[in-house]
Specification:
Elements (H helix, E strand, L loop, with lengths): L2 H21 L2 H11 L5 H29 L5 H26 L20 E8 L2 E8 L13 H7 L8 H28 L3 H36 L1 H29 L14
Antiparallel strand pairs: 1-2
Helix pairs in contact: 1-7, 2-4, 2-6, 2-7, 2-8, 3-6, 3-7, 4-6, 4-8, 7-8
Organism: Bradyrhizobium betae
Protein name: High-affinity nickel-transport family protein
Keywords: Membrane, Transmembrane, Transmembrane helix
């Protein structure tokens, strides 16, 4: 094997390792932790990580190929906008997570037709419908619950049409991976061009980088899923606190990104946006 071939293989191997490291970026971990907080199985969490990694790889390959092969130049305002979209996405993830959890305090109104608390053995504690965790008075006698399963927010969402999409649970992390890929693809492509001038080798590096990102995110979701899946069964109240924390962290991190990109470092909403791909 020639020295040139060894150098190419070394760069490809480096791309895989850097892809795994890239998966551990703070905004990536915050986003995926918010999604994994709803999962109740380790296998499902790992598949979510894979879906995120595939989405990220798709945009990195598409944008990277455009830059490497066709010499496309990303305007500063567009580049800043792609990074700004990550902040908006994190805020939305946080809001949707907090809104979907339900209130742990307070007591929901008992639906009409359900006997009163004094008439039957009805009590109040935290419980779950799938991944929707909430609290209201209910009993274990036949027909005594406070509401039917189809009245939870997630059930209503499923009936609106999303429940008919077979891969709905993995579509969301895939789309989030697409957005993250848009924000980071330019920096990755420019880094490759500074090292590898041959387009085919550069695209190979990009592909290995994407595969490393998928593997890295699968490992991250495997680690993150452990406390959520354990507490969902054994410590439901603590699981609720974890999910609230993940939603708040996502929302706060997104607000910080929006401020930094929109008004401070990036100055997106000015006539002279500043964009430094990193």
């Amino acid at each position: 094997m020639t020295g040139a071939a060894l150098n190419v293989l070394s760069f490809l191997y480096l791309g895989f390792l850097l892809g795994m490291r890239h998966a551990a970026d703070a905004d990536h971990v915050v986003a995926i932790a918010t999604i994994v907080s709803r999962e109740r199985s380790v296998a499902g969490s790992v598949l979510i990580g894979a879906a995120w990694g595939v989405g990220h790889t798709v945009t990195v390959m598409a944008v990277g190929a455009a830059i490497i092969v066709f010499g496309v130049v990303i305007p500063p305002r567009l580049g800043v906008s792609m990074e700004f979209a990550v902040g908006v996405m994190l805020v939305l993830l946080g809001v949707l997570t907090l809104a979907g959890i339900g209130r742990a305090g307070g007591v929901a109104r008992v639906h009409a037709g359900v006997p009163s608390v004094h008439e039957l053995d009805v009590h109040d504690h935290l419980h779950a419908h799938g991944d929707y965790l909430h609290r209201h008075p209910h009993g274990h006698s036949s027909g005594v619950h406070g509401h039917a399963d189809e009245h939870t927010p997630l059930a209503r969402l499923d009936r609106s049409g999303l429940g008919w999409i077979a891969l709905y649970d993995w579509l969301r992390p895939f789309v989030i991976g697409l957005v993250h890929g848009l924000a980071g693809s330019t920096a990755v492509a420019l880094m490759i061009l500074s090292i590898i001038r041959e387009p085919v080798a550069a695209l190979g590096y990009l592909l290995l980088f994407g595969l490393g990102t998928i593997v890295g995110m699968m490992l991250i979701t495997l680690i993150l899923s452990a406390p959520f899946t354990f507490t969902a069964v054994n410590l439901p109240k603590f699981n609720w606190l974890l999910r609230v924390a993940s939603g708040l962290v996502s929302f706060s991190f997104g607000v910080v990104l929006i401020y930094g990109i929109g008004f401070a470092e990036g100055r997106m909403f000015t006539d002279m946006p500043i964009w430094n791909p990193h």
